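Input chain follows. Return structure tokens only.
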Amino acid sequence: MVLSDISTLATRRDVRTRSISPENFDGAPGGGGRATEGTGAESARDLGPGWKISPSVDIRAGETFELAAIAGGGRIQHIWITTHVDNWRELILRAYWDGAEEPAVEVPYGDFFCNGWGRFAQVTSQAVAANPNGGFNSYWPMPFRESARLTLENLSPSDVRVYYQITYEVGGDYSGEDYFHAQWRRSNPLEHLTPHTIVEGVEGAGRYVGTYLAWGVNSNGWWGEGEIKFYLDDDDEYPTICGTGTEDYFGGAWNFDVPGQGYTEYSTPYLGMPQVIRPDGLYTAQQRFGMYRWHIADPIHFATALRVDIQALGWRSGWRYLPLRDDIASTAIFYLDRPVARRPGTPTRDELEIHTGDGAAPRGA
């Protein structure tokens, strides 16, 4: 699977481009820039219609906002979105395909864009780009045959202002394309002697195409010896695909340690560790990492079923493995031949919470 191929850009296709934003909520042809009220109306009071009247939306605490509702077949090609950093884990992005009541995508906003720790990290990859300061971009193709609906739920206690643009094409034949899915799970902490589940119970045919992990280390020492395992189709106790270590799966080696520099951030088209959060000697006492692996050039195909998990292992005395109980949040991305798949329950705000420890002691302490 290739997200974009420059060699095809000169090939004419009988499709049209549409785009939904607060300046054109339904993506209608000629419908942009017509707003007479919106979050920019006061700033444009000397200029009038057509001058950035409605660049963003306000989502009240506890409410869900419909980012886009598209009728008919099409394919979402690009999502750009931004909001303030302190809400990235408390906003839930969802996508529904072809009128399904259950979402195919249900992921915290920051995690979907490889920024799961509520702190900005630049990501330079083919599928996801996170640019200064919090400009999030997705290039995952998201086809649909009958309709598409994208929403953003605000679980935070404060209103949030969101700027966004969703670009898509219409008019093509999407009957042979599978549906985009993204699921989020967290083990906090991971149970003893238990791998972290990335995805499970998926039935149908498709391709697994991506993993993002926000990994919080809860002990001293190296934490990345654990193997990732892909259980495909009739696999039961043992997987078809078994990795050799966490840093190996994300394309690194030997503890991600560049001699003299320690853990070293990197971001490439298909894999990376763009975020390393180090202890600060005060409230941030533990190391945290953000890592992605896109199976774009090497999608993992399955015909009837899919399950994926990853171990958390360090070292103890005598060169023995040490099972760890870390804080692991995963985002699994896959394409499936149906718009709905088995997924975990919707996380609560407490289950989403990032225990950063940032901030001063309370008064009187």
